[in-house]
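hiii so um. not sure if this is the right channel but i have a protein structure encoded as tokens and i wanna go backwards to a sequence. like what aa goes where. can anyone help
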């Protein structure tokens, strides 16, 4: 088993290194690997390096958030945008565009919108101080539908002005030009992943059943509150730099659970690596498939993710 895990880590890390190299040399302008570090190519290299770092953050953050939510809610369809963060961020971004807010403040607007949706969902799902799993899921769906309807209404009224910005936020992009923003987002994302891994053993117990976890002395309600807050913070932070990118936090955890098993001490790090590979490859496809046009990365993840998820469901009913 240990040998198998070492091989899995080695294979995933090797695939990530290969994907990163291709992401740096391929694009609208291809750069020979031998010329990558030449001074003339540094501006392009810096931009692509920022995209790679963003892909690593987005992949690992969304995938680990998906793992945590699937475990604490014991729902295989739980994913990072379950709490309405995507529609909340999208609505805030559209409102900011309509109000003429500078693009500098767009990430802040998206973060505040995502945070507002989380507060509403959390408030609706509490029953006598206890977070009810079904209520949390239903509240997330209701808030998402309501905010999405408002988005469509606003775009109908201000279509020409808001359509392009809406596409960016609702389908995602890794066009990150501000390294300071990237560093600012990296802090809560990496800390959040570390905290989730700290609770790996508790997640193992909760995923087997809440009653069993309570008998083992685990404060399930407190852990739920902590992990819901952490996953929401990670998701809201990532939306600031990439918009909404679906399927990452859903299919990658499922795929890795089939490959390495349900032990979260193993599942979390391997899923991190796999999600990083997935995001770097998807971004590369988005940039190079119809050069010089760039496809929103959320379109690529959906095209790949939907059929893969159907296959996983058919082959792995035991997920």
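sure thing!! here u go:
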């Amino acid at each position: 088993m240990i040998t198998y895990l070492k091989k899995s880590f080695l294979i995933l890390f090797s695939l990530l290194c290969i994907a990163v190299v291709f992401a740096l040399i391929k694009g609208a302008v291809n750069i020979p690997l031998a010329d990558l570090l030449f001074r003339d190519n540094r501006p392009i290299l810096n931009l692509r390096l920022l995209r790679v770092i963003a892909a690593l953050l987005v992949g690992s953050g969304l995938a680990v958030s998906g793992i945590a939510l699937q475990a604490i809610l014991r729902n295989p369809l739980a994913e990072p945008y379950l709490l309405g963060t995507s529609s909340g961020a999208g609505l805030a971004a559209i409102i900011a565009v309509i109000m003429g807010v500078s693009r500098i403040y767009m990430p802040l607007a998206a973060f505040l919108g995502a945070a507002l949706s989380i507060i509403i969902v959390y408030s609706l799902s509490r029953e006598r101080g206890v977070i009810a799993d079904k209520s949390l899921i239903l509240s997330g769906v209701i808030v998402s539908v309501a905010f999405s309807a408002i988005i469509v209404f606003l775009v109908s009224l201000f279509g020409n002005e808001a359509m392009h910005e809406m596409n960016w936020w609702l389908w995602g992009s890794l066009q990150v030009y501000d390294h300071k923003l990237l560093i600012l987002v990296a802090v809560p994302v990496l800390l959040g992943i570390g905290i989730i891994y700290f609770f790996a053993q508790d997640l193992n117990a909760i995923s087997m059943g809440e009653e069993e976890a309570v008998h083992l002395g685990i404060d399930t309600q407190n852990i739920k509150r902590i992990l819901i807050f952490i996953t929401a913070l990670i998701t809201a932070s990532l939306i600031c730099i990439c918009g909404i990118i679906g399927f990452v936090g859903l299919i990658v955890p499922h795929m890795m659970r089939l490959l390495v098993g349900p032990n979260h001490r193993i599942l979390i790090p391997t899923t991190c690596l796999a999600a990083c590979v997935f995001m770097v490859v998807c971004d590369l496809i988005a940039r190079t498939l119809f050069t010089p046009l760039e496809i929103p990365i959320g379109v690529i993840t959906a095209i790949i993710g939907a059929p893969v998820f159907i296959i996983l469901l058919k082959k792995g009913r035991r997920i």
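oh and The beta strands are 126-127, 130-131.
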